[in-house]
From TrEMBL:
It holds the Pfam family F-box-like. CDD domains: F-box_SF. Coiled coil: none annotated. SUPFAM superfamilies: F-box domain. PROSITE patterns: FBOX (PS50181). Residues 1-44 form the F-box domain. InterPro entries: F-box-like_dom_sf (IPR036047), F-box_dom (IPR001810). This is F-box domain-containing protein. It comes from the Eukaryota.
């Protein structure tokens, strides 16, 4: 007698008694049973994982140091996608926040033994947690996973760190050569000024201020070094955490380290999507866009200076087809990033001529060029656009 010839209610009863491993094998060997057993398999796998984590949570989280979490900083969190038995089926996501060593060890087992795929991995790593042994196992498991799996099965759509880029080398956590998607959030060091050296409006005083900001320049170089190691990136999102209320003085000459960072990004020849939020290290620094990029997105653009907009307007952006520009709804504030003279400026013209889609939110914000939409429409005909104030 074949399983496919059994009555549905009897078949369902038999399948319900199998464990997840038996179900996985059964689904792959008999397509007739897929509709019945695959749904049970999903429930088995998810319920099994949740039961393990839930049982451990109550026993081991007592006494855990939540100091960072109370301060608004999650010490460690991870989200990953479970592999599905049937290709093309909807992926399922497992979540784990800050917890105990035992739970992290179970999660490491899930990654190494239960055939999880880190195709949409999201990680949040706090500075304090890296100095402990609590999550050493899971970091080693992730490192091993990234080295033995192909690039198609490993990507990071969100990597949030509570430490500066100069404190830890992120390439020690993962095989960065495998990464095809990377979204990186990190705290940005502030520019420090010693006005006893004079305002940074001459080359000599600016060089003195460069020397004063060694930590910030180290962060720039470390980001450059990281990007040099991710040559297979197709999607890159850079999301530095900056303060709108910090005064940033204009610089006649940007530090050479920023030019080196731009060269590293231009070397990402497989990149097709680039997303940037806030400003990178200085409001006047425009990060060069590789010629391969087709989708370009800028968020919180009201923190960018007039000099940045001038450089943006002159950039050819040769193959960009989709452009998204969004402000965060905050206008000018006293003592903020901008000088009052930058309110309501024009860029007059723009070089980009390849656009097919254009989205702009916050057109009425005085921190954006008054003629931005006009210039883009003049240079890009037949444009599909969405503009809002």
């Amino acid at each position: 007698m074949y399983l496919s010839s059994l009555a549905p209610e009897l078949l369902l009863n038999i399948i319900s008694s199998l464990d997840a491993n038996d179900l996985a094998q059964l689904v792959q060997t008999c397509r007739h049973l897929y509709n019945t057993s695959n749904r049970i398999l999903r429930h088995e796998v998810d319920a099994d994982t949740l039961e393990i984590v839930s049982d451990l949570w109550g026993h081991y989280t007592r006494g855990w140091d939540y100091g960072s979490a109370r301060g608004g900083s999650m010490m460690f969190a991870v989200t990953f996608t479970i592999i599905d038995v049937e290709p093309g089926s909807k992926p399922r996501v497992s979540n784990l926040g800050s917890a105990s060593q035992a739970i992290f060890n179970i999660l490491a087992d899930q990654i190494t033994k239960r055939n999880k795929r880190i195709v949409d991995g999201k990680f949040r790593i706090g500075n304090e947690i890296l100095d402990r042994d609590s999550i050493g196992y899971i970091l080693r498991a992730l490192n091993k996973y990234s080295h033995v799996h192909p690039a198609s099965e490993f990507s990071i759509t969100s990597l949030s760190t509570e430490f500066s880029l100069s404190q830890h080398d992120l390439s020690t956590f993962f095989d960065t050569r495998k990464l095809t998607k990377l979204s990186l959030r990190f705290p940005a060091a502030f520019w420090e000024y010693d006005y006893s050296m004079g305002f940074p409006n001459s080359e000599a005083s600016q060089q003195a201020h460069f020397a004063l900001n060694k930590k910030l320049l180290r962060d720039i170089r470390n980001l450059r070094d990281l990007l040099l190691k991710v040559s297979n990136l197709e999607v890159l999102s850079l999301r530095p955490h900056v303060s709108f209320f910090r005064v940033i003085q204009p610089l006649l000459v940007l530090p050479p380290a920023l030019d080196e960072l731009g060269q590293a990004v231009e070397g990402l020849t497989k990149l097709h999507t680039l997303k940037i939020s806030d400003y990178l290290f200085h409001p006047a620094f425009f990060l060069p866009v590789p010629k391969t990029v087709k989708k370009l997105q800028y968020k919180k653009v009201n923190k960018l200076s007039q000099e940045w907009w001038s450089r943006f307007a002159k950039a050819p952006l040769t193959n960009v087809e989709g452009l998204s520009i969004r402000s965060d709804g905050i206008g000018l504030r006293s003592g903020g990033v901008f000088q009052k003279s930058e309110k309501g400026f024009n860029i007059e013209d723009i070089e980009i001529r390849s656009l097919k889609r254009f989205l702009c939110q916050g057109v009425g914000n005085p921190c954006l060029p008054k003629d931005l939409v006009e210039c883009i429409n003049r240079r890009n005909t037949g444009l599909e656009q969405s503009v809002s104030y």
